[in-house]
Structure to design on (88 residues):
């Protein structure tokens, strides 16, 4: 039996609270992995997930964007964050 590992894909933009505690970002997706890396996991494959938390944070700062997207590769590593066509 191969052990199953759980990977949590979270919003990377964590904001510390006034007391210094840094809560984890919003959970966007969970991956369960085990054994070898499957053949479909290639660097060019990615998953793009919209993030309401980042959009709300930008709006609070006066930046109005239609959406914020976090891009991850299939091992859960953040590739880029985009807003309305811009990479941030
Ligand atoms: Zn986010």
């Amino acid at each position: 039996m191969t052990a199953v590992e759980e990977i949590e894909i979270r919003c990377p933009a964590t904001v510390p609270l006034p007391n210094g505690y840094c809560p984890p970002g919003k959970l966007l997706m969970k991956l369960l992995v085990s054994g070898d890396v499957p053949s479909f996991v290639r660097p060019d494959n990615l998953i793009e997930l919209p993030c309401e938390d980042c959009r709300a944070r930008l709006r609070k700062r006066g930046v109005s964007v239609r959406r914020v997207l976090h891009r991850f590769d299939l091992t859960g590593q953040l590739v880029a964050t985009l807003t309305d066509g811009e990479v941030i």
